[in-house]
Amino acid sequence: MGSFGAGLQPLVLADAAAVAERVAALLLEERQRWPSRPLGLATGRTMEPVYAALARRVAALEPAARQRLRQEWLSFNLDEYVGLAPADPRSFAAFMAEHLVRPLGLPPGRVWLPDGLAADPAAAARDYAGRLAAAGGLGLQLLGLGLNGHVGFNEPPCPAEAPCRCLALSASTRAANAPAFGGVAAAVPERAITLGLAEILQAQRLLLVVTGAAKGPVLRRLLQEPPHADLPASWLRRHGAVCLVVDRAAAAASALQAGQ
Ligand code: GLP
Q1: Would you call 79 a catalytic residue per the annotation?
Q2: Residue 46 CB less than 6 A away from ligand 1
Q3: Which pLDDT value is given to residue 10?
Q4: Is 99 among the catalytic positions?
Q5: Which residue's CA is the closest to the ligand 1 atom numbered 10?
Q6: Are 203 and 140 in contact (CB under 8 A)?
Q7: What is the C-alpha radius of gyration for the chain, rounded to an integer number of angstroms?
Q8: Strands 10-13 and 242-247
Q9: pLDDT in tens, 176-198
Q10: In the chain, N or C: fewer CB atoms in 10 Å?
Q11: How many helices (H) and strands (E) are present in the chain, helices listed first?
């Protein structure tokens, strides 16, 4: 269904809808075949059609299979803004509630995110990493790609060993994420807690999703450059089981040929 391997060989599909279907099928397969492995999840616009496709697939399951999926669900998100409560509609917790928890009918306490309201965000990051480790580490990790090459909120420069931590967001990331904050970059929180490249690279499989022409330039860099700290996603090249799924718009804008 999806090919996970070493290197970053892109699978180019027609459009974002086709990408969403493929990715949703892989997420569902992971949950059903390896229910004890925590699933690593991401937020962002790229993931909205992915979760919508997943919800449709879950709705189409036999009732017993759907019930089992709900009972066994366990996922850990990559990141959360510091200073936003889960009830704040701009938080990643609220994004997951809207796009995953409610549509899939998941029971409480199965979709974990870092605690954005913790009085000590650095300690909250350590706690989150500990909770993930206690759950056995990540099975499949879903990843989007930031315009500056970040994965999660691992902003450049970022070493491959960076652990889960609280960090400052770059001006370009705050500008990129401004649409969820009324278009005002200054309203985007200054800090976030993110899983590090360390936890991401320890996942059993990595699923990187890149859609839209705007991602062309960073996709091009990702496909051409060796692993280095200024392009955090480039560390994924070191993982032996990566699947990179892109749409034709991103591929064309990166000057890739479809089907390559
Ligand atoms: C965000 C998130 C990432 C996400 C990326 C791309 O800031 N922290 O997890 O994958 O940037 O977002 P989008 O899909 O909206 O382009």
Answers
A1: yes
A2: yes
A3: 96
A4: no
A5: 144
A6: yes
A7: 17
A8: parallel
A9: 999 999 999 999 999 999 999 99
A10: N
A11: 10, 10
